[in-house]
Specification:
This protein is 38% helix and 17% strand. The chain has eight helices and ten strands. The chain has helices at 14-23, 43-52, 72-88, 106-116, 133-143, 161-171, 188-195, 231-248; strands at 6-11, 27-30, 57-60, 92-95, 120-123, 147-150, 176-180, 199-202, 205-208, 226-229. Helix 7 packs across helix 8. The radius of gyration is 18 Å and the shape is globular. The two termini are 15 Å apart.
Amino acid sequence: MSAALTLEIASNSLASALAAQAGGADRIELFDNLGEGGTTPSFASIAIARERLQIPLFVLVRPRPGDFHYDALETELMLRDIAQCRALGCDGVVIGALDVHGGIDMPLCRELVQAAGPLQVTFHRAFDAARELPSALEQVIELGCTRVLSSGGQVSAEAGSSMLAALVAQAAGRIRVMAGAGIGPANIARIARLTGCSELHASAKGLRRSAMQFQNPLLRGLDPDWHQTSTATVAALRKALDDGAHKNGSHL
């Protein structure tokens, strides 16, 4: 791992998590349903990932796709999932919730953070859906979260680099701001340099082709292929990040 820069890989399966570790990731965020923005992975995925990973494992706690405003039933699901992550020995959880006005749902998020106990807590990109990011950052800091994942409220971290830099300055070491969305080997070092973020988050996904020799032609809506983290892409991200750090000193 770089002395200054951390590479977290968003892994949509156990296989993706293991591929990310092999490619040189520093930390895993494990989840399901990449195409829907991520949901909580299965018990077995978390358990086996914990058994086989030698790097920190964080688990996304999100009960469904869609918005980030949750009801009592969804809250119960998240609390149970957090308890499961603690019992399985995960290093952290990834949470987030908003109120109907676009602010951080402080009562619910306090409950989730309290449930996490000694685990690190990352506030996920619900943050980017908030009405006003500087105010939302102060709320996330008040919650005691370890870090916040953000694209600066834009479609990609590169597009939101100015806001990310402003959030890093505002945070002033009180919380880590982790850049994520649209990060690849070609731009990761530049994003780190422009934003001042010391943690970078990428999916490094590649398309896996089905090995099925027979596919029912009548099932036109069923895509047999899927996306999985590419070890080679993770390695390329790691190299680009480390090369950039070496070229520019310890701070990009």
